[in-house]
Design brief:
GO molecular function: ATP binding; ATP hydrolysis activity; transmembrane transporter activity
Pfam family, one: ABC_tran
Distance between the termini: 20 Å
Radius of gyration: 17 Å
Keywords: ATP-binding, Nucleotide-binding, Transport
Number of domains: 1
Structural class: alpha/beta
Largest sheet: 6 strands, mixed
Strand order of the largest sheet: 6-7-8-3-9-10
Protein name: ABC transporter domain-containing protein
Number of helices: 7
Order of helices and strands: EEEHEEHEHHHEHEHEE
Shape: globular
Number of strands: 10
GO cellular component, one term: plasma membrane
CATH architecture: 3-Layer(aba) Sandwich
CATH class: Alpha Beta
Length: 225
């Protein structure tokens, strides 16, 4: 499903060049739960952003179902991000002035779906994450764990094939972190491909595969069965 071929990403920081990724080759199959681990600055978030279409590689190719997304035009890349992938971030990235329902509905605005259907789909996504009774609450009225579940519902609402989770438990206590990890595992069991960036090795072990990155290079790939 995902094939990364000879991918490098170089940032120009003034006169200095920073190599975030260095000739990475990797394959992630459909339906996998893969955890990307490594120290800060290793390139793990950069890799996720490239596969998620948030950035483009300096060189190399990223194939999704045989199509090189790194060559997509802006319009087609936006469509890929909106329809094929969902993002969950450490900081939740929710609008505090909007209700949980309105936050989840946001990605649907760009999908051309009428308002009534947007509401139905958003309610269904919130029900999937166990927040059917919180649809009218604003993020400031929710716990950290509940806010992250709203974020996951928003990632699910367009029925993507791939869920990207960047340090999804980083702002949560251990109990809520465990609940979020259980939810990600459940989504993977339902057929979603889940790619998670984490510093937490205990959480990484919940994945079926651990991909270790250091200094922009893939160091090791371990399978968990």
């Amino acid at each position: 499903m995902i094939e990364i071929k000879n991918v490098s990403k170089i940032y120009n920081m003034g006169k200095e060049k920073v190599i975030a990724l260095d000739n990475v080759n990797l394959t992630i199959k459909e339906g996998e739960f893969a955890a990307i681990v490594g120290p800060s600055g290793s390139g793990k978030s950069t890799l996720m952003h490239l596969v998620g279409g948030l950035d483009t590689p300096t060189s190399g190719s990223i194939f999704i179902d045989g199509k090189d997304i790194s060559k997509l035009k802006d319009k087609d890349m936006s469509k890929y991000r909106n329809k094929s992938v969902g993002f969950v971030f450490q900081s939740f990235n929710l609008e505090n002035t909007q209700t949980a329902l309105e936050n989840v509905m946001m990605p649907l605005i760009f999908s051309g779906i009428d308002k009534r259907k947007r509401k139905v789909k958003a309610e269904k996504a919130l029900e999937m994450v166990g927040l059917k009774d919180k649809i009218k609450n604003k993020p400031t009225e929710l716990s950290g764990g509940q806010r992250q579940r709203v974020s996951i519902a928003r990632a699910l609402v367009n029925e993507p094939r791939i869920i990207f989770a960047d340090e999804p438990t980083g702002n949560l206590d251990s109990k809520n972190g465990q609940l979020i990890m259980n939810l990600l595992s459940d989504l993977n069991e339902k057929g979603y491909t889940v790619i998670m960036v984490t510093h937490n090795m205990e959480e990484a072990k919940r994945a079926r595969r651990i991909i270790s990155i250091k200094d922009g290079k893939v160091q090791e790939v371990l399978n968990n069965f």
